[in-house]
Amino acid sequence: xxxxxxxxxxxxxxxxxxxxxxxxxxxxxxxxxxxxxxxxxxxxxxxxxxxxxxxxxxxxxxxxxxxxxxxxxxxxxxxxxxxxxxxxxxxxxxxxxxxxxxxxxxxxxxxxxxxxxxxxxxxxxxxxxxxxxxxxxxxxxxxxxxxxxxxxxxxxxxxxxxxxxxxxxxxxxxxxxxxxxxxxxxxxxxxxxxxxxxxxxxxxxxxxxxxxxxxxxxxxxxxxxxxxxxxxxxxxxxxxxxxxxxxxxx
Amino acid sequence: xxxxxxxxxxxxxxxxxxxxxxxxxxxxxxxxxxxxxxxxxxxxxxxxxxxxxxxxxxxxxxxxxxxxxxxxxxxxxxxxxxxxxxxxxxxxxxxxxxxxxxxxxxxxxxxxxxxxxxxxxxxxxxxxxxxxxxxxxxxxxxxxxxxxxxxxxxxxxxxxxxxxxxxxxxxxxxxxxxxxxxxxxxxxxxxxxxxxxxxxxxxxxxxxxxxxxxxxxxxxxxxxxxxxxxxxxxxxxxxxxxxxxxxxxxxxxxxxxxxxxxxxxxxxxxxxxxxxxxxxxxxxxxxxxxxxxxxxxxxxxxxxxxxxxxxx
Lengths: 250, 312
Known about the structure:
The complex is a heterodimer of chains A (about 250) and B (about 300). Chain A has about 250 residues and is α/β, with parallel strands linked by helices.
């Protein structure tokens, strides 16, 4: 069984982002970039499924400029067999990303597409669902457990208030949540080996898709600053403040 | 111009998030209809009829819609959506699961997790886990929107007359996915994202046994229990208690953080709370930078004293 894994290059999750003063975006120059953590979980799961003998080939995908090759090298070092970069300098929004992935699904005919539930930069949480809709495939979103069988895949979803178990017909799209697994550390031999694995580069415009932005980002602004409050000396003073000043308890 | 809200419910009752979505809908221009998709959900339909300023309640009640899975409900919504300028759902795991798929079926973009409606086509939404905000203009002919409940007040007032019902008898079968089971955390406490008071515990609690003092305090104050990711990862609390970038976003009137240092990821989930109290023995913990009232003390001493004082 072939699996496609979509990976996005984002600002590393440990970086404290800074909004540009002209409100056009956030600072990205000289900032550490990494694979979206939720996508890393998706790659890890694909590799685990391959190690279990349930998956035969893993194809990692990324959409973006040349630097996304670094992200794909990480996926290859984790255990993906080959990679495809859809090269573009355009800003690709979720619907466009879903169309690109749909195109690659037609070409590669995988039984399963794995991707993170959301990217930690734009926080849309849309692409997987949109892809499943465009393909008319089953979808399992926010998944924390996967059991892959011959014609179906059983998933556990993290929903508000608890867990939901579904059985999905293959082929299916699964978006991964935090508790699915713990991505592995990259070993030096694997990093070296990944350098020899192929990355196919396809210019976006050769796919002839309408990937224009439908959402216009008018500005990016910092959140409202919260003022720092006061320190109270003891519990009695705290209760007094909460009752009389803040009036949030009685 | 008209607005369609997709109701969130469990076939028994409407979820409180609908009241917040309704407030957002009222800030847009147009008549508001609501669609109830489910199975044997009479009580839900009646509650939907009583919601304020609802023109019409659409009902798709069939066995095929019992678990409201996206594979068929997204298509059902898409068919109805063509008659509307706006289609709204709450930005819950339910809304996030269904509405992007619906939008894609109509080759449309969607704006998710809206915290403010700026104009008829322009919205504010958090990005980078709330460390920045994007002002987004959506020019699509149907505006698909998901609404962050904590950013809009609840419209709980009910209408004196019942809105009329229109039955949708189209049945779209779901042959792609099957519901197996659901395990919901049963709690007598208010739901975390709607609670007026939230008490959260962090790694400072040291173990699951100690975490019970957080629950005791929450019960005493009639609040919900939250936890930092560190506490969840360490196994002190279940995952659905998690507040933060990767968990739930809350904005209660009172948020008490006990033994939580205040990692960016946690702050992203609670910094819109009205009053924040932090109890931590480390005076340099970043949580104090955003706390209205900070108490530097051993959390076990402070919490015990707090419990004793509040019981008086």
